[in-house]
Amino acid sequence: MLNASVECALIGYGYWGPNLARIINNVPQARLRWICDQDPDERVRAKQLYPVAHITEDAQEILADSNVDAVFIATPLSTHAELAMSAIQADKHVFVEKPLASSSHAARRLIGESEKLSRTLMTGHTFLYVPGIRKLKELLESGEIGDVLHVSLSRLSLGPFRRDANVVWDLMPHDVAILLYLFDGAVPNRVRAAGSAHFDPNVVDTVSAFLAYGNGTTTELRASWIYPHKIREVTVVGSRKMMIFDDTQPLNKVQVIDRSIELAWPAMNLGEFQMASRYGDTHIPLLDNTEPLYIEICDFIDCIRERRRPLSDGHLSVKVVEQLEAIDESLGPVIARPIPLNSPTPSKSAHESCRRSS
């Protein structure tokens, strides 16, 4: 395998598929052999850009091709588990766009099947390959920041709205995966969340979640489709320094801020605790500018060729899904605006599919 290219197929050429196809086509060790989509217009566009690839509307043609080594899945969330399982059982390595599945039970079944058949299973948690997030990880491991006290993650924008998943399952997989990466796989022992549905009462479009960990670290996640500005920000508050990653900045995406709260010691009793803010310099580290998606897909291809486990493997992915379930279940009654009298009422099945994305 080390001397041969990995023959790849892409299922789903709609929203994110074109990005995957572009990268696969540019990776020297990969070859884009098939593209599948049920929309005839998407198939026409795919054929224009990739005339050498086979274009089909039937995923079974791909699974039946013994020359296909790896399948990329970029379809609606509710189809991930079934397509991934079929691909694994057809002896293919599988890359699934985030999240891996709409339930932790389905995700664990995929892990079991992929390990039984020795197939590589990877989820597209692209932010684990973002140079800025990797720099945060490097600084945490160096001890420069000190103990992590609190992390705040915000993922806000004006749309795009979805009907196949609520904002928890659409946006929060990124930030849950980032936390797992930064915290070496540690999971919270307490989850609290609140959400609201401002336009479609059956689709939660704004959520705030609070996660607490056994070591005392706390995190806050905010996600929304109804915010006027695009915000993609991670703030890490350490006992020595603080860090900010702002993905919307063209340059200077990471800032290391020499600032903290200090307690004045000794103190005779609790009432005498003195707190002071310490201010120092702000450092902006130099980052690699390689496209994260390219790094991610190269890692997947290399893992297949070298028979090693990817960074965003099935085990990390199932932890992401478990935390999404916990956040979704913690929402409880959702604040929703009443449906206008001149608007059709979404069906109950639409509510269930959007709430749990399955």
Give the C-alpha Rg: 22 Å
Strand order of the largest sheet: 14-13-12-11-7-10-9-8-15
Give me the number of helical elements: 10
Largest sheet: 9 strands, mixed
What is the structural class? alpha/beta
Total strand segments: 15
Task: Looking at this protein, list some descriptive labels.
358 residues, alpha/beta, 6-stranded parallel beta sheet, 15 strands, disordered C terminus
Walk me through what this model shows:
It is a single chain. With 358 residues, the protein is of the alpha/beta class. Helices cover 34% and strands 29% of the residues. The chain contains ten helices and 15 strands. The chain has helices spanning 17-26, 40-49, 59-63, 77-89, 104-116, 131-142, 167-182, 292-306, 314-330, 348-356; strands spanning 6-11, 30-36, 54-56, 70-73, 93-97, 121-124, 148-158, 190-197, 206-212, 218-224, 226-238, 242-246, 254-264, 274-283, 335-336. The strands form two sheets. A nine-stranded mixed beta sheet has the order 14-13-12-11-7-10-9-8-15. A six-stranded parallel beta sheet has the order 3-2-1-4-5-6, sandwiched between helices. β8 and β9 (206-212) form a beta hairpin. α1 (17-26) crosses α8 and α7 (167-182) crosses α9 (314-330). The chain is globular, with a radius of gyration of 22 Å. The protein starts with 5 loop residues before the first strand and ends with a helix. Residues 345-358 have low confidence and may be disordered.
